[in-house]
Amino acid sequence: MEPKNKATWLTLEDVQDYLGVRAQTIYAYVSRGLIASHPDPQNIRRSLYSAENIQKLKQKKQQGRKRETLAANTLFGTEPSIPTAISTFARGRLYYRGKDAVNFAKEATLEETARLLWDAETLEAFSIQERDYPPCPPDRTHAFVALAAATATGHSTHGRTPRVLHAEAARLVGHLASTFGAENNPSLLIHQRLAKGWGKEKDVADILRKAMVLLADHELTSSAFATRIAASNGASLPACLLTGLATFTGPLHGDATPRVKALLDEVERSSAEQVVNRYLSSALPIPGFGHHLYPDGDPRATALLEEFEPPDEIARFIEKVTTLTGLYPNIDAVLAALVTRYRLQGDAAFALFSVARSVGLLAHAMEQINTCKVIRPRGRYIGPDLNEPVNGRS
């Protein structure tokens, strides 16, 4: 029922019908001064309520619902909600600050990528970290322990200049690479240090360079958003990076490659034919193929696949899946194929991905710091009714 006149005074039943709430809620509105009331001249035992106040209250509630809907769609929909100049997608391509990432990766190093994404005029080399553990294959345990220790003693980002933050970020990337077994040689670039530390210097160094540049950022991913939340609250750079990489470990995000690697191991043990038939006959999605942002194929995967030949059976598997499903291999599949081709040990896929992506995560942290805004979404309560009395009245 719509009040016909703003001067109208409504009964309790009319208000309940119009607002769709219980009597106790209306009494609470009156006690908070949101709705004016006075005794009904026809029956002093009941009250009448201001139609004007009630109309304004309903309009406010409707606007709130619109904001809630917008917030829910922004957080859980497909469109980014945070302005960023770091990277974006257009016409099926990835761009770093306006530069086509695939073209940039042809010659760029991860150090040059950091300078671009961090918008730094100059940048110190990624530092080395003396190990307090023996050299070993890539292992994320060392990485997370080291980042947690740095977080415990890290300084807030508030009141610190970009130059100082860039220098600390460079040290963090270098430290992270060291924990994954990179050679501790300050004269080498990060891809050379990793290749040498993994005993693959001659074979694989330049491919690791290109892979890491292609993996450095991918717009507002879950890990980038988590990193930005930490940064918006003034957390230290190690804390921001740890937050992002913890999110990155999810199998639906940066840790998808081990699933694909297990699949490729199965292909090598049996055959491409058997594995493809088993998945398709069971209506199972094949890990590592297709990408919702790149319906015509992941350009990062295509560019990296140009740099090496996968083992024969894996090459047949990729061709067969593409032919039968129409889906192209994504960066997870090609990274797993690279690790298999060069027999990289331990957690090499995760190591490559996380060292590279740490550059992007730190870029998001520092960009968020410059906005001077705290990311604090509101919850949309869907729990039981709130039956507690207001101001002692029921």
Automatic annotation (TrEMBL):
Record's keyword terms, sorted: Transferase
EC number, UniProt record: 2.3.3.16
Any Pfam family hit: HTH_17
Organism whose genome encodes this protein: Phytobacter palmae
Signal peptide positions on this chain: none
Major enzyme class: transferase
Lineage: Bacteria, Pseudomonadati, Pseudomonadota, Gammaproteobacteria, Enterobacterales
Protein's pathway: Carbohydrate metabolism; tricarboxylic acid cycle; isocitrate from oxaloacetate: step 1/2
This protein's name: citrate synthase (unknown stereospecificity)
Superkingdom of the organism of origin: Bacteria
Residues in Helix-turn-helix domain copies: 9-60
Similarity remark: Belongs to the citrate synthase family.
